[in-house]
Amino acid sequence: MDIILDETTNNIMAELEKTQHDFWNIPRQTGVMLNMFIKMMGAKEALEIGTSNGYSGLWLSKALKETGGHLTTIEFYEKRQSIAIENFKTCDVFDIITPIQGSACDIIRSFPDDKKFDFVFIDASKREYVEYFNLIKPHLTQKCLITADNITSHAEKVQTFVDAVNADDEFQYEILELPGGLLVAYRN
To answer: What are the phi and psi torsion angles at 69 (to 5°)?
Structure first.
């Protein structure tokens, strides 16, 4: 059974799915999986690295609405972020979202020490995945979940990230056979 969304969100999602290749959006199956993960774990503080036009952020925020959570989402390109903000407002989730525009690495470095996340979704510059991982680790709660898209479709670019997760004794992970490949890492 697919997730049930309100009519407005369903319509926006359908429109965004038509632009998947232009905005590098995740496939619907991945969105449904991320939504389920957040609800299953009762995540409260989520971080998305790579907002694009807001498609994945809608999946995340709809689940976070149910858990009473909050989404911080980072996008490098201002034009993409403004499209995402409009989509978040239209789908009635903007009240639980903090959009931040700029370099993800710089933004993560600027987080206060007490800023913590229990769910992270990475879908930005593939070669920077390992840097995102290293920078975000001090901001992760115990039993957090890190998810990362394009693990099989961009295997060479993300290999250092996969190696870093594999070498880290705090995490167990698996790569799910979704379109593009989704790495799911659980912090023990």
So the answer is: -100, -170
- Asked whether residue 21 is domain-assigned, the answer is no
Distance CA 77, CA 75 (A): 6
Q: What are phi and psi for residue 76, nearest 5 degrees?
A: -70, -45
Q: How many angstroms separate the CA atoms of 185 and 188, rounded?
A: 9
Tell me whether residue 119 is in a domain: yes
Residue 1 lies in a domain: no
Mean pLDDT per 10-residue section of the chain, whose length is 188 residues: 73 80 84 96 98 95 97 96 96 97 98 98 97 98 97 97 98 96 96
Domain that holds residue 134: 27-187
For 123-180, where are the E strands, in sequence order?
A: 140-149, 171-176
CATH number, domain with residue 156: 3.40.50.150
> What are the distances in angstroms from CA 74 to CA 108, 159, 164, 173, 175?
9, 22, 22, 24, 24
Which letter, b or e, does each residue of 111-123 get, where b requires 16 or more Cβ atoms within 10 Å of its Cβ? Answer: beeeebbbbbbbb
Number of domains in the chain: 1
β-bridge mates for residue 71, sequence order: 46, 97
Residue in the block written with tokens 């989402």 = 73
In a domain, residue 153? The reply is yes
The pTM (predicted TM-score) of the whole model is 0.93
